[in-house]
Amino acid sequence: MASIRKTESISLRGSRLGHNSAMQNGAREPTNTSSPSISADFLTWSTEIGLDRIRTRLLDLTNRNKLLNFRHSPASSLRVVDVPIDTVFRQLRDTEKFGFMPVPEPDAAGGEAPSAKDYADELGWNTSFDLGNSDDRAECLPVLLYHDHLDTLSRKIASAAKTAIEESGANMLYLVFGFLEWYESDDSKQPHLAPLVVLPVSIERTGGRGKAIEAVLEYSGEDVETNLSLVEKMRRDFGLEVPPLEEDDTPEIYFAKFTDILKLKKTWSIRRHITLALLSFGKLLMYRDLDPKTWPAGQSIAQHPLVRELFESSKNPEIELAEEYPIDDPDLVKDVPHLIRDADSSQHSALIHALRGQSLVIEGPPGTGKSQTITNLIAAALARGKTVLFVAEKLAALEVVRRRLDDAGLGMFCLEVHSHKTKKGAMLTDLAQRYKLRGTFREPRDLDRHLAVVEEKKQLLTQYASLVNRTIEPFKATIFEILWARDRCGQVVASHLGSLSHVILPVVVQFTRIQFTQAEHFLSVYAQHLAAVLAPCKTVDRHPWAWIAKPLQFEEEERLLDLLTEFLSVIRKADECCERLHDVAGITLTRTEHGLDHAAYTLGLLPQTGGAVIEELLTPCRSAANRQKLTQFAGQVESFRTGFDRLSTVTGSVNPLLDAQVAGELSDALDCMRQWGLEGHAVARIRTLLDASGETAKHLAEAHSSFRVLLTIVGFDAPVTLSSAAFYWKRSTSSKPRPTSGFIFGCPHSNMNAPGPCCSLPSGRRRRLRTRKCRSAKNSI
After folding, report:
1. Beta-strand pair 97-101/141-142
2. Peptide bond into 474 cis (omega under 30)
3. Which of helix, strand or coil describes residue 208?
4. Which residues contact 45 (CB under 8 A, 6 or more apart)?
5. SS3 category, 251
6. How far, in Å, CA of 639 to CA of 654, rounded?
């Protein structure tokens, strides 16, 4: 059948037809239509020469090839010691398993531990990598490593082998039995080691959960191959024929076949080493398969039409993109295959091209349905009785297609012919199982009836697709486009469907594309203006200018804009003042019309200070205690002002009264008036009393002087008080005339009633004294 290649790149090689697989993700068509890059090996116009050239390219005959120049790396290979080489080979071929045995851990006793090789020598191991041969049975594979190092290295090798299987599907882990040590020339001193017998093996790490980790080797069951790189190297560079490895050959038997070569090359030798390493034989197998001599007679690969076309056809000047067929066309019914997986029109077209025998390349990014198309193609080819060989570079691609075929019930028709799972015995068993199933599958009698039902539904769907893709005039759009646009816009305006029900539109069915575009532009401009109008409010009736009933003239708009500019300036100033008041005094005003009106009203209640407000005083006022003290102080100032005003009505000049000394004297006088009970007397009355008090003081001074004289005359020393003066006055006025010898007085401070002479005065002097005393008493009254 036609050759098919699945690729992720845009490079097309050796194909007449490139098919752009847009697939389900809509990949774009390649824009580079320049001539494809084709190797000169395909332009020989000779199939035999071309095959020989591309076969040679598969071989790496340089010293970079590990099959010609193997180097024992301690980080990626394991070398075995102290076992018979043939015995290990036979036991592995007989499906026995071998574990690696590390060197026992030495007792360092605090010092530095010896190397594994040195300690193995002490234990009596044969530490030479050149192994002997005997009939003794091998129980394990000793290695010159301690346990921890062996565990690390075996884990690394096992991980690399697993990765190789997952990526390529081929096992790359081999146990090499023997190496050919060869030199580039007779005088060369640099030896090269080429593996001779390579046995494919698998490694399994067991243990854990308290047990020691153990790496176990097992023969994988694949064929033991000859080192084809060595064969070709010897033939080309030295003219030597390397003997083939037969099925029953053991390493020692195969080594013996090199006797003739070693006689010719005296410096060459066989190194009997056993080494576990990763080697790649994939290209070597392709090299052997492309050899026309290995093909059956009459079926040489060089005679295959597709192979001859690759080497003998002319080069296309540019890439030719495949045609995408109308798969619902009745003329293509016989070419459209039945599908087991979904496919779009581009995938259908690719299937038609392939089933018609055309070579093509299907390309597209990951996830666009290339594997799905290959699955459908394999199923369609099986339905036509064809045999399909599906080859992929990655194992994952094979497994995806195999899994989809299994899901469709076609897994029994699939056979793995080359992978790490295809052991010879298992493959023969699978072939036998499939051979027994031949003739057991029933004819699908009801298939035609089901296909007829499917065809009827397909016609209905085709009719529907034709209707929805019909162009509507004069708008020149399909029904599908209109419905899609409606649904897309419906999702955008889903929350406004109630409002849109009130919108009245003209008959849009009669719109042309130009009219529709004009209406879109008008609505876009209207929507921009409406968005600007509704920015400060939710509805139009709540807009600040909703009260304007008629449009404004140009002059009115200019005047309004000027007023708005001034208004905004005032608003900004007020906002700055509010910010300043909050920063300085901690007072927060409500920045609304009501809040500003309330602030203006409160400000009007405050008295005029006659000067600028001292900002330093506002910060202390933020404290409640300071505001209480300030209130008390204001009350005291108010009381002082009231008293000051009252004093101003009484006296012409109040300022002298504010002197501290004067204020002290007034305070003392007020205390005296309280003591004398004169608080309620008027100033005139107090002045009259003051004048009378002055006169009285004068009389009292005279009386005091006279009384002192009287006391001197009578020769008596008594305190000068009003009570004593009154007493002497009473006694003097109530006494009768006595003899001239004298008067008798009683002392107020003694026994006044006791008779006795107090003093004796002549009668003339007594009369003058009485006259003076009476006059003083009257003056005092």
Report:
1. parallel
2. yes
3. strand
4. 311, 312
5. helix
6. 16
Distance of CA 377 to the CA centre of its chain: 44
C-alpha closest to that of 777 among 717, 702, 716: 702
Q: ∠ at Cα 387 (386, 390), nearest 5°?
A: 130
Buried b or exposed e, range 348-382, using 16+ CB within 10 angstroms:
bbbbbbbbeebbbbbbbeeebbbbbbbbbbbbbbb
Per-residue model confidence as pLDDT tens digits over 568-601: 998 899 888 888 878 877 778 888 888 888 888 8
Q: Which of 570, 400, 564, 512 is nearest to 6 (CA)?
A: 400
The backbone torsions φ and ψ at residue 19, rounded to the nearest 5 degrees and listed phi first, read -110, 115
| Helix, strand, coil content of the chain in percent (nearest 5) | 50, 10, 40
Q: Tell me if 21 sits within 8 A of 8, measured CB to CB.
A: no
Altogether, the residues listed in the chain come to a count of 781
> Angle at Cα 387 formed by Cα 385 and Cα 393, nearest 5°?
145
Check whether 209 has a pLDDT greater than 70: no
> Which sign does the torsion angle of CA 562, 566, 569, 571 carry?
negative
Helix (H, G, I), strand (E, B) or coil at 215: strand
- Work out the burial of residue 585: count CB atoms within 10 Å of its CB; fewer than 13 is exposed, 13-18 middle, 19 or more buried: middle
Rg (C-alpha) for the chain, rounded Å, is: 66
pLDDT band at 492 (very low <50, low <70, confident <90, very high): confident
Stretch 218-235: mean pLDDT, rounded? 86
d(CA 38, CA 14): 7
Write out pLDDT tens, residues 148-163. Answer: 899 999 999 999 998 8
Our CA dihedral for 264, 268, 274, 277, rounded to 10 degrees, sits at -110
Sheet holding 4-7, edge to edge: 4-7, 360-363, 18-20
Q: Is the pTM of this model over 0.70?
A: no
Residue with tokens 């809509």: 26
Can you give the pLDDT at residue 44?
67
- Rounded Cα gap, residues 429 and 452, in angstroms: 40
Tokens at residue 397, please?
Answer: 């691609």
For residue 205, which of 278, 253, 261, 156 has the smallest C-alpha distance?
A: 156
Mean pLDDT of 483-493: 84
Q: Is the pLDDT of residue 257 over 90?
A: yes
Q: For residues 516 and 475, is the Cβ–Cβ distance under 8 A?
A: yes
pLDDT: which is higher, 55 or 173: 173
Measured CA to CA, the distance from residue 177 to residue 198 in angstroms comes to 6
Q: What is the DSSP code string of 680-737?
A: T--HHHHHHHHHHHHHHHHHHHHHHHHHHHHHHHHT------HHHHHHHHHHHHHPPP
Locate all alpha helices (DSSP H) within 586-659, ordered by sequence. 593-605, 615-618, 624-650
| Separation between Cα atoms, residue 249 and residue 408, nearest integer Å | 45
Burial class (CB in 10 A: 0-12, 13-18, 19+), 706: middle
Two tokens, residue 283:
């290209």
User: Of the candidates 516, 521, 528, which has an alpha carbon nearest to the alpha carbon of residue 472?
Assistant: 516
Q: How confident is the model at residue 422 (pLDDT cuts 50, 70, 90)?
A: low
Predicted confidence band of residue 610 (pLDDT cuts 50, 70, 90): low
C-alpha 715 chain-centroid distance? 125
End-to-end CA distance of the chain: 166
CB 374 within 8 A of CB 390: yes
Q: What are phi and psi of 274, to 5 degrees?
A: -120, 120
Enter the tokens of residue 107.
């007792």
Helices (H) and strands (E) in the chain, counts: 25, 12
Q: Is the pLDDT of residue 319 over 60?
A: yes
